[in-house]
Amino acid sequence: MEKEICILAIESSCDETAAAVVRNGREVLSNIIYSQIALHTEYGGVVPEIASRKHIEKINQVIEQALTDADKKLNDMDAIAVTYGPGLVGALLVGVSEAKAISFASGIPLVGVHHIEGHISANYIENKDLEPPFICLVVSGGHSHLVVVKDYGAYEIIGRTRDDAAGEAFDKVARAIGLGYPGGPKIDKVSREGNPDAIFFPRAKVGDSEYDFSFSGLKSAVLNYLNSCRMKGEEINTADVAASFQKAVVDVLVEHSMDAVSKYHYHKFAIAGGVASNSALRRAFEEKCKEKNILFYHPSPVYCTDNAAMIGTAAYYEYQRGIRHGFDLNAVPNLKLGERI
Ligand code: KG4
Ligand code: ZN
Q1: What pLDDT, in 10s, does the model give residues 74-100?
Q2: Which ligand is nearest to the CA of 192?
Q3: What is the pTM of this model?
């Protein structure tokens, strides 16, 4: 029998302090997430200094809980994995310093993980049959990438946002219609009461790259619509605005993704990142993929938003390929996917 590989994974790139224990890449033994959302809500978004301070306060507790829930000791671990970029530098530094300290003190190897590679790998947790190659749409608060996953650890980005990330657009529009932070889940919920065809918002085309996205024009169109209603003294139907905005985002994400799947002749397609838990987006992809006979994969909501289990899964495949980091590993806030530092 093959030796089992257990990885303790740490994630602190934004506003979740998270730790998990993952066995053999796809079996999550524990997944602890301390969400700071409530702390940042009153500021309408993530305050980097508060995020770093809270990570420092919570990280030891979250790690201990992850080991306890997994019924494991630190010495049972084969690697300590940590997100080292991209993300908020002060937030990343907390996880990276912690992982290096644990690795140094215990002698357990250190594996640095790219946050987006983590999001993509979240798909492996519940879809035991999923293997590369496939196409993955990564849509989070900081990223909107269309990625060809050629193999474990081998990625080609074929489309990216030119301005706002999809999640950022959700958060900004939610704030404008008074729903507060984080906007994605709130827009998702209120949209169920609204008519997605009530208002037509533009679907941006980016001239020279068929797979790139742009969401800032859409955000401005929503703001203009709201201003013009207010100036004319017309009542604003929040649910209709939310549903119409959401439909515009979903249409663009689905169209670009399906074009890529057809052009690259893949029959597997996955979504990842916080926005991947959006119910309208999932429904639209389910329908389209069925129509085109493409296998559609998506993580459960808890593995879509930031978590450490996805980092442990990504780390497993890195570990198996012999990737180890030294104690000079640093936080890299703008780390590129596929780049190794
Ligand atoms: O992946 P994530 O937790 O953090 C980043 O790496 O950025 O994504 C957070 C983003 C936020 O912008 C949040 O509003 C969005 O994901 N989000 C959603 C939903 N749930 C979270 N957007 C749309 N619909 C949702 N249900
Ligand atoms: Zn993320």
Answers
A1: 999 999 999 999 999 999 999 999 999
A2: 1
A3: 0.96
Q: Which ligand is nearest to the CA of 273?
A: 1
Q: How far is the CA of 139 from the centre of ligand 1 (A)?
A: 8
The strand pairing partners of 81, in sequence order, are 9, 111
Quickly count: other Cβ atoms within 10 Å of residue 88's Cβ.
Answer: 22
- Neighbouring CB atoms inside 10 A of 302's CB total 14
Among the CATH numbers 2.30.42.10, 3.30.420.40, 3.30.1330.60, 1.10.10.10, which is that of 132-298?
3.30.420.40
Contacting residues for 265 by C-beta, under 8 A, at least 6 apart: none
Q: Helix, strand or coil for residue 187?
A: helix
Fold match between domain 6-121+304-320 and domain 132-298:
yes
- Cβ–ligand 1 contact at 299 (below 6 Å): no
